[in-house]
Amino acid sequence: MKLLEQRILEEGQVRPGNVLKVDCFLNHQLDVELLDLIGEEFYRIFKEDGVNKILTIEASGIAIACMTARHFHLPVVFAKKAKSKNIDGDVFTSKVHSYTYGREYDITLAKKFLAPGDRVLILDDFLANGKAMKGLLDICRQAGASVAGIGICIEKGFQPGGAELRAAGYKLASLAIVDSMSDSGLTFREEG
Ligand code: 5GP
After folding, report:
1. Of 172, 92, 93, whose CA–CA distance to 130 is shortest?
2. What is the pTM of this model?
3. CA distance 97 to 60
4. Looking at ligand 1, which atom is closest to the CA of residue 21?
């Protein structure tokens, strides 16, 4: 998506540890018009895939999921990172290793919001090593829900998450794929 690539070039900042900061428009301050176009693009890509629910992970995925859901007219459910008690066994949980914070955390999702028969579109802001996505896929597996597709705003193509998910056969659409980045610049993978 050229518009997203342009914004990354203009406003993205490369930080140590291969972290790309896009907090001016994507995951702290939010450019709602850009998010709406992102939602429209995900709708164009996945509209024929029988999606009935959009799944994401807090916090950065929520805005993207909501703006996409407006085009699908479907509910959004998000996995929580905060520890939540599982005394009654009423939540699915999975462990995720955080890319940006370098530690393990649990994600949880109330069982009542995901069930066999659901066909899920999973969305997130970034894909790097794929750990967050694997946690979300694990929750779908526990629920018996099927995965219609995975939509990512920014994939860091020099990290293995994207290649692994494609090899596993998922329909993965990344709106911008950064193939290399350093203080001196950024390159994107050409479409097609
Ligand atoms: P993964 O689990 O694929 O290694 O990393 C994806 C998660 O880590 C995303 O949910 C995202 O929040 C965060 N993340 C990974 N790389 C970056 C990055 O370069 N910039 C930002 N802002 N977040 C990232």
Report:
1. 172
2. 0.97
3. 16
4. 22
Structural domains in the chain (count):
1
How far, in Å, from the CA of 126 to the mean position of ligand 1? 5
What ligand 1 atom has the least distance to the C-alpha of 60? 12
- Report the residue among 126, 127, 180 best suited for mutation to probe ligand 1: largest number of ligand atoms under 8 A from its CB: 126
CATH number of the domain that residue 15 is part of: 3.40.50.2020
pLDDT in tens, 15-66: 999 999 999 999 999 999 999 999 999 999 999 999 999 999 999 999 999 9
Among residues 137, 151, 143, 119, the alpha carbon closest in space to that of 50 is found at 119
Q: Return the exposure string of 151-167: e unless at least 16 CB atoms fall within 10 Å of the residue's CB, then b.
A: bbbbbbbebebbebbee
- Give residue 102 CA to ligand 1 midpoint distance, Å: 11
Containing structural domain, residue 92:
2-188
For ligand 1, atom 8, name the residue with the nearest CA: 99
Q: How many helices (H) and strands (E) does the chain have?
A: 5, 10
Distances in Å between the Cα of 13 and the Cα atoms of 9, 27, 56, 89, 185 are: 9, 13, 24, 42, 9
Look up tokens 């459910």; give the residue.
77
